[in-house]
Amino acid sequence: MYVILVYDIGERRVGKMLKLCRQYLNWIQNSVFEGEITEVKLKELLSNAKKIMKEREDSLIIFKSRNEKWLTKEVIGQEKNDLDTFL
Amino acid sequence: MKKTYYLFNPGRMSRKDNTLKFIPVDESGREGTPKYIPIEGVSDLYCFGSLDANSALYNFLGKNGISVHFFDYYEHYTGSFYPKEYLLAGKMQIEQTRYHLSAAKRLVIAKKFVQGASFNILKNLKYYQNRGRDLGYYLEKIDGLAAQIENASDIPGLMGIEGNIRQSYYGAFDHILKDHAMEGRSKQPPLNEVNALVSFGNMMCYTLCLDQIYHTQLNPTISYLHEPGYRRYSLALDIAEIFKPILVDRTIFRVLNKKEVQSKDFDIQVNKVILKESGKKAFIRAFEERLNETIKHRTLKKHVSYKHLVKLECYKLSKHILNIAPYEPFKIWW
Q1: Cα(first)–Cα(last) distance of chain A, in Å?
Q2: B201: which of A43, B146, B260, B284 lies 20 to 30 Å off by Cα?
Q3: Which residues 4-23 on chain B approach chain A with CB closer than 8 angstroms?
Q4: What SS3 state is found at B234?
Q5: What is the C-alpha to C-alpha distance for residues B189 and B195, in angstroms, rounded to an integer?
């Protein structure tokens, strides 16, 4: 499954969220991540995220797609991070 | 599916916040912007450039079951960081060794490897025969040699047949490739562009097999067709034999005939030819594409990638060794 994850989180907790998401998905922009992930790993990520979030103030949204190929991505302006596997 | 990362730029890889951080360094030693790699999405690392890392990183990689493969300047495979075996099975180890020690049992498996390899080689040639290349002579010759596999009475004899098949097969390369000539196999060092690609491709295939064996209970040092030597994972060589024609050779034909790799991608010296970084990248890109390509598996009734086929091969071999089902080598059926 291919997902896009975005969050809007209180300043004091945002750093923790960034670090958590980096373990599972590729950072593409501030508060935005994308990448291939399995069902189970996504659950793991979300349960960890809930521990960080204050659910009355913060929000986290996930866009799911069955496969990367059903997704067209257009970048306007600066691409902050390309997702190449050649480093 | 987890991804393989290829490191060409020199730089420093480190553990940061329980994930990987890579800081590229340019020629003048300046550090670039750090890049974070999601640890959960990494299957393994291939290291072509120079990599700075400390033991904390290797501990971390080990815990996550990620192996790192190293290659020297001349693109030879130099070794791997192989995390602690996580699928241990004494029974499998004992049976695997027993099958190796019994000459008769070993020969059965070894023959299957050669049969699989020659079948896939023939399939490659037939594909190009249908596309108007004149390969009748090679097809006949290899067909004849393949018929002798059954009668081989020992391992050296079998290796001899295998060698002859490869030699005729490489002869056919000159007819398949449009603008490049192979002029026989040369290695250590390769003497022309095609040979450089074959060496590089075979090494990639060997590493791939090793990596897939890691995810099964098989021990990669106990082999059947090749002699188990010192300091090498010879079972990976056995399994690579079956997949080389499908994964490596097909990719070579593609990159050369479609001009994805050209003469400018090679560093041509008097007595050796090596791939430049641009050539390596172009080849790996095509190779990676091939590995992730999926086919509908006939018996499993689902889509599997070429990469997964290698692992399935290991499963079939373990079933044979544990006497569950006789091993049949992978034969390309489309």
Answers
A1: 24
A2: B146
A3: 4-9, 11, 17-19, 22
A4: helix
A5: 9
* Helix residue ranges per DSSP H, chain B: 55-63, 90-101, 103-129, 136-148, 155-176, 193-214, 234-243, 250-257, 277-292, 306-321
SS3 of B87, please? coil
Residues within 8 A of B (CB atoms), A 47-76 only = none
B109 Cβ partners below 8 Å, 6+ apart?
B99, B224, B225, B317, B320, B327
Angular region, B65: left φ>0, alpha ψ -120 to 50, beta rest: left
Report which of B130, B168, B178 is spatially closest to residue B146, judged by C-alpha positions: B168
Residue A35 contacts B, CB cutoff 8 Å: yes
**Chosen from A22, A37, A40, A44 to mutate, greatest number of chain B CBs within 10 A:** A22
Using CB atoms, pick whichever of B9, B38, B285 lies closest to residue A35.
Answer: B38
pTM of the model: 0.79
Query: Among positive and negative, which fits the CA dihedral A32, A66, B305, B66?
Result: positive
Residues 6+ away with beta carbon under 8 Å from A35: A2, A3, A24, A25, A26, A83, B38, B41
Q: DSSP letter at B247?
A: I
Is B3 close to A25, i.e. CB distance below 8 A?
Answer: no
Task: Render pLDDT for B267-325 as a digit per residue (tens, 0 to 9).
Answer: 877 788 888 888 888 888 888 888 888 888 888 888 888 888 888 888 888 888 888 88
Rounded distance, CA B58 to CA B11, Å?
16
User: Using a CB-CB distance cutoff of 8 angstroms, which residues of chain B are in contact with residue A15?
Assistant: none
> Contact A22/B4, CB-based, under 8 Å?
no
Judge contact between B232 and B240, C-beta under 8 A: no
Is there a contact between B40 and A26 if contact means CB atoms under 8 Å apart? no
CA–CA gap between residue B158 and residue B225 (Å, rounded) = 8
In one-letter notation, the amino acid at residue B223 is S
CB distance A81–B35 less than 8 Å? Answer: yes
Q: What is the pLDDT of residues A2-20, one digit of tens each?
A: 999 999 998 888 888 899 9
